[in-house]
Each structure stands twice: as C-alpha cells, then as structure tokens.
Amino acid sequence: RGYRRRSRSAVSGTIVTKALLAVNVAVFFAQTLSQGALTLAGAMVSSDIAAGQYYRLFTPMFLHGSFNHLLVNCFSLNAVGPQVEALYGLDRMSVVYLASGVAGNVLSCMMSSHMSVGASGAIFGLVGALGVFLARHQEMLGGGSKVALSSIGQTIFLNMALGLRPGSNIDNWGHLGGLVGGVVT
Q: Which terminus of the chain has a lower count of CB atoms within 10 Å, N or C?
C-alpha cells in the first residue's frame, strides 16, 4: 500500500534526481572557474580528514575530476535515480544518496591515501538500494527482477574490474562503500 502511494506520487517527477544533476553540473562549473581551488578544498584527502576536516566526507560527492567524469556520473545518476526515486520516494532517495556518498568516502578514506572526488559512491548506493528492492519483491515483480538483479551484478563487476586496471583513477573503495551504504540504508 505504501509502495503504491510513493510510486504514484513520484512517477510524476524526479525532483531529487534533477536537483542532484543540476547541483553536480553547477559545482563542476564552479570548479572550472576556480581553476582547481574548489577541488583541492573539498576533495576526499585522508590526511586532511584525519586532521579534522570532516566536511571532506561529504563534499567530494559533488566534485568531479574532469568533464568526462561528470558526464559518466550524470548519465549513471539519470539512469538509476528516477527508478530509486519512484520506488522509495523523495526523502528516502535523498537519504540513500547522501548516506551512500558519505559511506563511500569513509571507506575510501580508511583504505586509500589517494585524493578522490565524484558522485559514483552515492550512485553505487542507489544501485544497492535498487538491488535490495528487487531482491525483496521478486515474487511481486516476477522474472524481470532476476534479470534486473543479474544486470546490476554485471554492472558492479564490470565497474570494479575497470578499477583494478593498472593506472586506473577509479576509486573502488568509494564504490564499494557507497554500494554497502545503499544496501543498509
């Protein structure tokens, strides 16, 4: 009953997804204008977090390393965000996104000394939340949920494999932390 009510009200719009896309684009524009100063001030840097700059667990999910990085994350957010928003509603979608982004940055901070930016930890969290929904409602959704779960698993595997390539700038720890954050949120 609650699912139907949230689903019907959210189908008419994807306000959180659109807002997050707009914020990511606006922040990237500001990053570009700042000539890297905004990136340096807000990126996930483990030593800075250890020194008490805890805001760096939040800010990196709105920063991007390049225009292509921004495009891939916006494409991914636009692909999964509306689904999660329709299933869980505005408030829960917001909580999942933000909590997953922070969870990704916490794990990345604990496991890596590399500077990191990007929305992908938060997006992986949305994928995790979608996976949980599909797994919990397989009976209601029928065979389509198994196909979707398989597709999610393949996407996660491919992304993690790409992050293992030599010279990769992909933050697998951030992705994994975001995924777990989305599953538990």
A: N
**What range defines the domain where residue 125 resides?**
2-184
Distance CA 177, CA 185 (A): 12
Looking at the structure of the chain, the number of domains it has is 1
CA distances from 1 to 4, 142, 151 (A): 5, 18, 28
The pLDDT tens digits of the residues spanning 86-116 come to: 999 999 999 999 999 999 999 999 999 999 9
Helix (H, G, I), strand (E, B) or coil at 13: coil
Helix/strand/coil for 70 = helix
pLDDT digits (tens, 9 = 90+) for 38-48: 999 999 999 99
Catalytic residue positions, numbered: 120, 175
Return the structure tokens found at 136: 């919990």
> Which CATH number characterizes residue 51's domain?
1.20.1540.10
